Amino acid sequence: MSERSLPLTATDAGSSPAPGRHTGSALLPSLAPLLAEWLPRQRWFAGKGRPISGFALVSGTELLPCGAGGTGAAPGLLHLLVRARHGHTGEHGQRAEHAADCYQLLLGVRSVLPPELAPASLGSPASGPLRDRTVYDALHDPKLTGLLLERLRSPGRLGPLRFASAPGAAIPSGLRPRALDAEQSNSSVIYGTEYILKLFRRVDPGLNPDLELPLALARGGCARVPAPTAWFEAAPTPQSPALTLGVLQPYLPDSGDGWQLALHALAGRQDFTASARALGRATAEVHATLADALPTTLLRGPELERLAGDMADRLEAAARAVPALRPYRTGLRNAFAAVAELARLGHTRRAQRVHGDLHLGQALCGSGDGLWSLIDFEGEPARPLSERRRPQPVVRDVAGILRSFDYAASQQGTGERWTRDWAAANRAAYCAGYADVTGSDPRDDARLLRAFETDKAVYEVLYEARHRPAWLPIPLSAVRRLAAADG
Ligand SMILES: Nc1ncnc2c1ncn2[C@@H]1O[C@H](COP(=O)(O)OP(=O)(O)O)[C@@H](O)[C@H]1O
Ligand SMILES: O=P(O)(O)O[C@H]1O[C@H](CO)[C@@H](O[C@H]2O[C@H](CO)[C@@H](O)[C@H](O)[C@H]2O)[C@H](O)[C@H]1O
């Protein structure tokens, strides 16, 4: 997609474009100062700590007229893909630009903002066609999210946007929307008790695994994942492949997520091993279907060495960013060196598509049947899409859940003997459940498992330092343990 630059300082963009579906940059220069202030406050903003130096418009679509053509009380709706540039001026006046992330924004525009939408406000542009109107995050406005569902009900093209649905999908109209109020990497809207729509916030050109994998699992008949009902994307252009923007899937209203369930069990000092074992089985079922549905590969010496090398590189990058990690670097590197050693000894490992960011919060347990469903197949949002779509050893997902049991135990009471035993029992039950389905216990691949657990703990250190500094001691205590473990 071609891009146009937006200055950070507001300029008068001249007359408003005719109301229509596909807008150019006319509405946008005056939005840039509002975005520069609002974006860094969003949890899903990836450029924390790096000042925004400007924006580039990737695509802009009026889903409802926003400019002078929009009428008084009726809201306008603007869909934007904007790239946020980060840069600074060096001491000799030279400009340095850093990697720029692209974000999906759905902005409402109103003359008068109802009080209940005030928390969603970005403010009023000082100039341009939207002057004196209030611009706000449209996901909090049921009128506008209702319109989005209508678009998903009728597949087809709207300017650069393409809406599609699964064969036979029959989405009822008029479902009551509400924005999900959760700490998320993206943003979601729930419709009635039937559907949940996830809008990806930081987007990369290409097919998002959170659409690709659930579609493949649905086709393969795996019931452990809610099947996508409808989705929308930025249509491909000669410069860029289609870019997944949002996925609608059945909402599982009577379910609890594994993280909350585990904390609840811990609080009552209850056994959780039956649930952990069932989750191990669910993970294995998902892996088995993915291995059948999508390409797999054999990691030979060079690939295994690269895997270990990438882990070591991530450790170095994390240690640069988080000084508390530095004393453990040598011990942690041993875990990766052990995988490189396997490679040199001629070992190979199978790799396939996996979840990529599996933790207890990504598993929903039905209150009636006790069956687990896995959600959020996006992978680690901070990694490039190409990397997230690469086949990987299944122990990567296993390691994610094992780390999660450790997180839950640490959250309940750091260092207490019984919480450590609780975590160990559930880690064992989860692996046993995995082996029930596949016949092979992930613990038998101890070196690879330790490397992936270490890699995940390093990722978590970085994640917590950036997003929840008060939680940093949890992965750091795992890092201490993993660094001290023998070969
Ligand atoms: N199909 C679903 N049914 C019920 N709740 C869901 C469903 N999908 C997601 N959720 C809820 O929404 C939250 C955020 O979804 P998730 O896919 O993890 O988004 P993100 O990528 O933004 O973290 C989940 O933690 C879960 O509570
Ligand atoms: O759910 P997301 O895809 O946004 O995943 C990110 O956030 C998670 C926290 O919400 C984070 O998970 C870490 O904290 C969990 C407890 O809140 C714990 O169960 C996980 O084991 C731990 O990794 C995840 O790493 C991050 O990618």
TrEMBL record:
Top-rank EC class of the record's enzyme: transferase
InterPro entries from the UniProt entry: Aminoglycoside_PTrfase (IPR002575), Kinase-like_dom_sf (IPR011009), Mak_N_cap (IPR040999)
Entry's EC annotation: 2.7.1.175
Keywords: ATP-binding, Carbohydrate metabolism, Glycogen biosynthesis, Glycogen metabolism, Kinase, Nucleotide-binding, Transferase
Keyword Membrane: no
Protein name: Maltokinase
Family assignment from sequence similarity: Belongs to the aminoglycoside phosphotransferase family.
Pathway(s): Glycan biosynthesis; glycogen biosynthesis
Domain Maltokinase N-terminal cap: from-to ranges: 38-141
Domain Aminoglycoside phosphotransferase: 178-431
Pfam family, one: Mak_N_cap
Assembly and oligomerization: Monomer.
GO biological process: glycogen biosynthetic process
Chain residue ranges for the region called Disordered: 1-24
Catalytic activity: D-maltose + ATP = alpha-maltose 1-phosphate + ADP + H(+)
Protein species of origin: Streptomyces armeniacus
GO molecular function, one term: kinase activity
